[in-house]
Write a structure and sequence with these properties.
about 35% helix; Ubiquitin-like (UB roll); about 160 residues; 2 domains; alpha+beta; DNA polymerase, domain 1; 5 strands
């Protein structure tokens, strides 16, 4: 049995230590917001946080998550009012939506590390997340809006 902390809750799963974290999340814990895209860490659809770091869960063995905090898109905010979620909705970012959970999780780490990101910061942080629909301009605009919302929320 493997003990995990996912979205602030303790779980015990029966999985091989080398099983990708993605499949533990989706198939064993039924947290299906994290998507399978490419399986080789190139598209970003499977991005989750591991102790605050954005990682590709499709290539991260579940054993790496033992004793650490895993946060999925379902755990980004308990009330769905994270500044990124607000901006995503306000600016109607998703088209098909498949990549958006990975986009949001990468953007959340960016805003934690750089609360007022430049265009270059956004481009660098988001370059590993592929959107087949090409919503990159809306994603960038939403990240900037979320940065403003985040700043307003901390000063309120």
């Amino acid at each position: 049995m493997i003990n995990l902390n996912v979205n602030g809750k303790a779980f015990q799963v029966s999985a091989e230590p080398d099983m990708p974290l993605l499949w533990v999340l989706r198939d064993l814990l039924h947290l299906t917001g994290t998507k399978f895209g490419c399986g080789v860490a190139q598209c970003g659809a499977c991005t989750v946080h591991l102790n605050g770091e954005a990682v590709r869960s499709c290539i991260t063995p579940v054993s790496r998550a033992v004793g650490k905090r895993v946060v999925t898109i379902e755990g980004l905010s308990t009330d769905h009012l994270h500044p990124l979620q607000q901006a995503w909705l306000e600016l109607d970012v998703p088209q098909c939506g498949y990549c958006q959970s990975g986009q949001l999780m990468s953007a959340a780490v960016l805003l934690k590390e750089k609360p007022d990101p430049t265009d270059a910061d956004i481009d660098a942080a988001m370059s590993g997340n592929i959107c087949r629909c090409g919503t990159y301009p809306r994603i960038k605009k939403a990240i900037k809006e979320a940065a403003k919302l985040q700043k307003e929320n901390t000063h309120a």
